[in-house]
Amino acid sequence: MAQVLFKGQPAHTSGELPKVGSKAPDFKLTAGDLSDVTLANYKGKKKLLNIVHSLDTGPCAASAKRFNEFVKNRNDLVVLVISADLPFAQGRFCTGEGLKNVVTLSMMRDRHFAKDYGVLLTDTPIAGLCARATLVLDENDKVLYTQMGPELTVEPDYDKAFAVLK
Q1: Least crowded by CB within 10 Å, which of 20, 55, 63, 101?
Q2: What's the pLDDT score for residue 62?
Q3: CA distances from 80 to 6, 12, 44, 49, 72 (A)
Q4: Are strands 133-137 and 46-51 parallel, antiparallel or unpaired?
Q5: Range of 122's domain?
Q6: At 49, which CATH number?
Q7: Residue by residue, what is the 3-state secondary structure of the chain?
Q8: In degrees, to the nearest 5, what angle opens at C-alpha 64 toward C-alphas 83 and 150?
């Protein structure tokens, strides 16, 4: 279990992020067209997982926009923005913000992803959602970088994630 802060108060997760050097756990998440998506859908590409509790919050929205800008000229990389938001809400957000370079995925059908990645919040007013985290995976799903935000209301450290991907 990891501890982070939510508005300055301790918050706990269901586990720990996957270790750097390990193989990332597979997942089954829901895409905008309501299809199931797994890591295999992005085989052969580097993956940046931008895990957020909801795109309807300022820091989560800001991170999706920043990662969208970073990936716009990268054919070797896919940015996956993963939240508990419904695919319809994720689609409206991306359309409204003009985001065309990120892929949004929803945990609407179950929370196994959040448990397997150790980001499921267990004891805050937003329990059941994800703690903010950033992971970088290589083309073979090996974990190259992880960061769980120490404060859920603060944006991730973009520069560290970008440095791993340069």
Answers
A1: 20
A2: 94
A3: 23, 23, 15, 5, 13
A4: antiparallel
A5: 3-165
A6: 3.40.30.10
A7: CCEEEECCEEEEECCCCCCCCCECCCCCEECCCCCEECHHHHCCCEEEEEECCCCCCHHHHHHHHHHHHHHCCCCCEEEEEEECCCHHHHHHHHHHHCCCCEEEEECCCCCHHHHHCCCEECCCCCECEECCEEEEECCCCEEEEEEECCECCCCCCHHHHHHHHC
A8: 70
Active-site option among 55, 60, 94, 133: 60
% of the chain exceeding 90 in pLDDT: 86
Residue 87: is its pLDDT beyond 90? yes
Q: Is the pLDDT of residue 16 over 80?
A: yes
Q: Token pair 């003009």 is at which residue? A: 98
Number of domain units in the chain: 1
- Say whether pTM exceeds 0.90: yes
Which pLDDT score, from 0 to 100, does residue 149 have? 80
Q: How many alpha carbons fall within 13 Å on the CB side of residue 69?
A: 7
CB 125 within 8 A of CB 141: no
Q: Provide φ and ψ at 165, rounded to 5°.
A: -95, -5
Q: Has 94 been annotated as catalytic?
A: no
Q: Is the pLDDT of residue 166 over 90?
A: no
